[in-house]
Design goal:
Helices cover 8% and strands 43% of the residues. It contains one helix and five strands. The chain starts with a helix and ends in a 26-residue tail after the last strand.
Length: 113
């Protein structure tokens, strides 16, 4: 068991910011198109955090062109360039799946001061 733990800690990113459910984050991902590489940002609200350690994932949701878009990002993946917290939200739940049914002002999350 300690061997698996030692191997997984080797690949974990040490410099991750504080991320909680309800926070608005900007995730920069390395995208490969043919023989070119570029960085693409995805900004949205964290509606779920799952697992832990090397398997940790965050689900980020945003509305673009009146369509909800959710992406699941493995936090310690080498394709993730950076995760930047834009604003922190004040929520009382661990999973914010109820935001899927809400649009406009109803889908807003109060900011933690």
């Amino acid at each position: 068991m300690d061997l698996v733990k030692a191997l997984s800690e080797q690949y974990m990113k040490p410099e991750l910011p504080e991320m909680n459910v309800g926070d608005t984050v900007r995730v920069t991902v390395r995208v490969k198109e043919g023989n070119r590489e570029r960085n693409q940002a995805f900004e949205g609200t964290i509606i779920a955090k799952k697992h832990g350690g090397i398997n940790e994932t965050i689900t980020v949701r945003r509305i673009s062109y009146n369509v909800g878009c959710e992406k699941v990002f493995p936090v310690h993946s080498p394709t993730i360039v950076s995760v930047e917290t834009v604003r922190s939200g004040k929520v009382r739940r661990a999973k914010l799946y109820y935001l899927r049914d809400r649009v406009g002002k109803q889908a807003k999350i109060k900011e933690k001061l």
